[in-house]
Amino acid sequence: MNLIDLPRGYRGLLPRTTRLADESYLDFVETFRGIAGYGNYDQVAQTGDEAVRQQLGETDDTTPIEDIREVINALPFPAAWQRLMRSHQEMMWRRTRGSFLPFDEALLDAMKAAESEGPGKLVYDPNFTPPDYARREIHLQPGGYTDDPIGGVVYHYGTKVFYAGGNDQDEMHAELVDTLTPPADGVVNRVLDLACSIGQATTLLKDRFPDAEVTGLDVALPLLRYAHYQAVARQKAVNYVQGLSEDLPFEDGHFDTILSYILFHEIPVPVIQATVKEASRVLRPGGTFCIFEFPSASADMPASQRWLIDYDSNNNCEPYSPGFVYLDFHALLREAGFELAPGPKNSNGFLQTIVATRPNS
Amino acid sequence: MTDSAQDTPAPAIGQEVFGPGKQFFDNVVHDNLLESLLELTAAVWTCQDRIMILENVLSDLVGDNRNVAELVEAYQPSAQQEAARAAARAELVQSVFRSFSRRPVPGVSPAQNGVDS
Ligand SMILES: C[S@@+](CC[C@H](N)C(=O)[O-])C[C@H]1O[C@@H](n2cnc3c(N)ncnc32)[C@H](O)[C@@H]1O
């Protein structure tokens, strides 16, 4: 089983766009994102925080977000920044999808052919329909995670641009996996990558724990099909399962460790609550739930950061992220019986990291 | 707990990016100008990038009679050439978007204005 025959081949793990002009255009978008998007955000934050101080006085996480939005959105620099962020994000998805769409049949055929091949398995129920909340066009990706049959390759290249070149060969996923905290007793027989998308961390988990059974679970079949096809082509023995984090198809105490990278801010609060309970159920006593996630609000979270999360929610199709940010996530984990410790430092300073351990009873 | 979607038809693909889009300025022309600027810069870069690659290809090819356009499409830049492309691209982005950082922004100290410094 070989990689899908694309006109311009691959660069390492990453498929190349099908035309040079697409690569150049998307390279521009990527470089723009790094310089004018991430690079100019500090100015947006400073000018925004200063205006908020002048107009609203001292603020904390109870200050109505509507008031903060009104002050910062009226400033020209943040307005321009928002415009450019939204526009370049649209450019990224349109061009990425446009590049691979002419090859959709070859892509779908290759993924279909891989379904009956190993070493790992792809498990799904053809009658399963994802719940409506999971079918939003998160981050503006056309068809979202669930509804574009070629969404896997589109997600792969689109997120390459999103990470502004820092994850072309899964470097960022390698950092997650390298810094994952195994149970204190060192026993790792079964590992779950919860909401694994296209399996970038899943295969690396197998590399780190070669003797363990490694499973990636996600709601989105287009992403899992691509993940499985990639795993077959690279002979990685990992299993992928379509399912819901809030209703995990595993026995009690099945896993020794679970990784969850940026799932929780993308699901509604009742689903977050159920997912935490499910994670606790399927972990064995002493097992670790390693969480890398959006920050939780606190009294000292700057107004500009609250504005950024609000911008992202309204204009980058992140409908559920404020629900997560303003939830007392740590309390929720404790209520589900976890003992919490700060997780490893991550080079993405925006993220919080938590190691939630299921106590030995 | 989750709403059942058994009868929900698949949503149209790309409502977010192919729809009417968002407006961030009271005067929508400002939105449009900025978006045009982005597309224009992307187009300029796309041309410049191709030319750079073409030059690389041609210099590799001196004296050879093969199809340059196909070779350009299939070209795999070396790490060094890739770095040169990235540097030139960053320079273009810096120059086109310098206007956003050269004029002082309220609340930002002058030292922090200026991508170039
Ligand atoms: C931001 S992505 C996660 C990134 C991924 N963990 C990685 O390593 O790159 C969020 C993922 O959550 C999945 N998802 C959303 N709701 C879900 C649910 N209820 N159960 C399982 N997966 C879900 C989406 O399909 C998507 O792949």
Structure in words:
Chain A has 361 residues and is of the alpha/beta class. Chain A has a single domain (1-361), classed as Vaccinia Virus protein VP39 (Rossmann fold). Chain A is built from twelve helices and ten strands. In chain A, a hairpin with a 2-residue loop joins strand 1 and strand 2. Chain A is globular, with a radius of gyration of 21 Å. The longest helix of chain B has 34 residues, at 28-61. With 117 residues, chain B is mainly alpha-helical. At the A-B interface, helix 1, helix 3 and helix 9 of A face helix 1, helix 2, helix 3 and helix 4 of B. S-adenosylmethionine is lined by residues 134, 145, 173, 195-197, 200-201, 218-220, 223, 244-246, 261-263, 266-267, 271 of chain A.
Please outline the helices and strands.
The complex is a heterodimer of chains A (361) and B (117).
Chain A (H helix, E strand, L loop, with lengths): L9 E2 L2 E2 L4 H37 L8 H9 L2 H25 L3 H11 L7 E2 L27 H12 L8 H8 L11 E5 L5 H9 L4 E6 L2 H13 L5 E4 L12 E7 L7 H14 E11 L9 H13 L5 H5 L3 H7 L3 E4 L9 E6 L4
Parallel strand pairs in A: 3-6, 4-5, 4-7, 5-6, 7-8
Antiparallel strand pairs in A: 1-2, 8-10, 9-10
Helix pairs in contact in A: 1-2, 1-3, 2-10, 3-5, 4-8, 5-8, 6-7
Chain B lengths: L14 H4 L9 H34 L6 H7 L4 H18 L2 H4 L15
Bound molecules: S-adenosylmethionine.
Query: Uncertain spans of chain A, ≥5 residues at pLDDT below 50?
Result: none
Computed over alpha carbons, the radius of gyration of chain B is 22 Å
CATH homologous superfamily designation of chain A: Vaccinia Virus protein VP39
Number of strands of chain B: 0
Q: Are any ligands bound, and if so which?
A: S-adenosylmethionine
- First and last CA, distance of chain B: 54 Å
**Secondary structure category of chain A:** alpha/beta
* Overall residue-averaged pLDDT value of chain B: 78
The overall strand count of chain A is 10
Helical coverage of chain B, percent range: 55-70%
Strand order of the largest sheet of chain A: 3-6-5-4-7-8-10-9
Please compute the radius of gyration of chain A using only Cα atoms: 21 Å
Distance between the termini of chain A: 46 Å
What share of the residues of chain A lie within helices? 40-55%
Strand content of chain B: under 5%
Question: Which two protein chains have the largest interface (Cβ within 8 Å of the partner's Cβ), and how many residues from each?
Answer: A-B, 64 and 55 residues
Task: Note poorly predicted spans of chain B.
Answer: 1-6, 113-117
Shape by Cα distribution of chain B: flat
Sheet having the most strands of chain B: none
Oligomer type: heterodimer
**Helix-strand category of chain B:** mainly alpha
